[in-house]
Amino acid sequence: MFECSKSLGPHTWVHQFPIAQSSRQSPVDLRSSETHFDAKLQPLNYDDKATSSRMLNNNGLSFKLSFDDSSDPCVLNGGPLDGDFRLNQLHMHWGCDKLPGSEHIVDGNAYAAELHMVHWNSSKYSSMQQAVTQPDGLAVIGVFIQVGKEHEHKELKKITDLLPKITNEGSKIELSGLNPLLLLPSSTAYWTYLGSLTTPPLHESVTWIVMKEPLSISKQQLKAIQSLYFLRSGKYERLLNNNRPPQPLAGRKIRASFK
Ligand SMILES: CCc1c(F)c(F)c(S(N)(=O)=O)c(F)c1F
Ligand SMILES: [Zn+2]
């Protein structure tokens, strides 16, 4: 069978991206002792459009669902955010076999996987490329994923059913009519803190919004995710793309929308 391929260890990133050792890095351990309830935090607001998207096994590291953010954008606002943020892509981080795969952890505990929905600040910037380097450029919603009963909305199923069709690096497939709103858990409770991309170039441009309630998927769905692999120098390797360990909070405060 395939072995779990380890991407170049995160400890090597600092040579090319010195910001890796800066004070606004992600992911972090969401420790209850460091979180503070903030009554001023608004509920997240999504204009619930079903949008077209293209599923891609990108650079053999993960799969990415890209959304057309130029015409009929899917817009997020509210929560801790000032202004409108357009959904640009969503992707996932997972483990391998028994290894848990979430990037954020909660009081030291990891989940099986973590979904990231990446949005850029369209009130201040004109593209994702321009926003990705700005301190208020991005908002990423993180949703923990655990194995349990199959995802009730079937929205995640639309994604996992297609994964066997993009098992080779660079393969793409159209997926229209996905409603990102339905990928969010029923509870609106979230943590928020100022952080960074969790993979190079590690820009400190992300307002993180991590949902407290995990989504449940079936073992089969997790297997479909974990069986994503790519051909590297003639060898089939499975992906393990999640291994940035929690980074120092360095004095940052984590706000909670719930008591
Ligand atoms: C520049 C493309 C990109 C990533 F590669 C990425 F890993 C993340 S992450 N894991 O922090 O959500 C982003 F938000 C993102 F915009
Ligand atoms: Zn991510």
TrEMBL record:
Transmembrane segments: none annotated. Residues 1-258 form the Alpha-carbonic anhydrase domain. Keywords: Lyase, Metal-binding, Zinc. SUPFAM superfamilies: Carbonic anhydrase. It is an enzyme of class 4 (lyase). The keyword Lyase applies. GO terms for cellular component: cytoplasm. The keyword Ribonucleoprotein does not apply. It comes from the Eukaryota. It catalyses: hydrogencarbonate + H(+) = CO2 + H2O. Its EC number is 4.2.1.1. InterPro entries: CA_dom, CA_dom_sf, Carbonic_anhydrase_a-class, Carbonic_anhydrase_a-class_CS. One of its GO terms (molecular function) is carbonate dehydratase activity. Its cofactor is Zn(2+). Pfam families: Carb_anhydrase. Belongs to the alpha-carbonic anhydrase family. Reversible hydration of carbon dioxide. This is Carbonic anhydrase. It comes from Eptatretus burgeri.
